[in-house]
Design goal:
The chain has two domains: 83 residues, Helix-hairpin-Helix base-excision DNA repair enzymes (C-terminal) (Endonuclease Iii, domain 2, Orthogonal Bundle), CATH 1.10.1670; 102 residues, Endonuclease III, domain 1. Helices cover 58% and strands 0% of the residues. The protein contains twelve helices and no strands. Helix 3 packs across helix 4, helix 3 runs antiparallel to helix 9 and helix 10 crosses helix 12. The two termini are 29 Å apart. 34% of the residues are buried.
């Protein structure tokens, strides 16, 4: 077993006691539109606030047609207090309109068309491909970029470089799941500033790059 695969297995083991819901199920696909909207709401917002906003919004409207019919101020109220909730409400409306007009209300299932959606970047597109369609794709956010460099898997300057490199070294079976694993690992153990190295199960396989202080 390769060092990277052993590390992934140890991270999975380390996270079991936390009982993180989205890590319990394997390869369970979600509605692509809900994945997209949830990703928008999550930007610069803590998970508990995002989860609450997602539940409130989708309880009232959970598809492009129903969300487009909602008044802007109602969307704002439903998603408050996520960060930049006014801008996000407006963006969700505009994006939803584009999906209906350009793609007949269906989220595209390919990277080229996903990137045509206003404001959708590579990270969001890959998340939709993986979680929404079950298409192998690696979503690189700040946690994935930081931790994969810290572990010594890659030595890259930006998420795009990280994604390209990880595709060469991560087993394809883990492409979709690696984002959820490293995000949870980064929130619980491998913290950004002072990681909990003393209780980390992968410390012997980690190069600990750029760690100045740990616990």
């Amino acid at each position: 077993m390769s060092r990277i695969l052993r590390t992934i297995k140890l991270i999975e083991e380390q996270l079991k006691p936390f009982k993180i819901p989205y890590l319990k199920k394997k390869n369970i696909r979600a509605d692509p539109y809900k994945v997209l909207v949830s990703c928008i709401l999550s930007l610069r917002t803590k998970d508990p606030l995002t989860d609450g906003a997602v539940k409130r919004l989708f309880k009232v409207a959970d598809n492009p047609d129903s969300i487009l019919k909602l008044p802007l101020d109602e969307i704002q109220k439903l998603i408050y207090p996520v960060g930049f909730y006014r801008n996000k409400a407006r963006y969700i409306k505009e994006l939803t309109k584009q999906i209906i007009e350009d793609f007949s209300g269906k989220i595209p299932d390919n990277l080229k068309d996903l990137l045509k959606l206003k404001g959708v970047g590579l990270k969001t597109a890959n998340l939709v491909l993986g979680r929404g369609f079950g298409i192998p794709a690696i979503c690189v956010d700040t946690h994935v970029h930081r931790i994969s460099n810290r572990l010594g898997w890659v030595k890259t300057k930006d998420p795009l470089q990280t994604e390209r490199r990880l595709k060469r070294i991560i087993p394809k079976d883990y492409w979709i799941k690696i984002n959820s694993l490293l995000v949870a690992f980064g929130q619980k153990i491998c913290l950004p500033v002072v990681p909990l190295c003393s209780r980390c199960k992968v410390k012997d396989l980690c190069k600990r790059r750029e760690i100045k202080k740990s616990r």
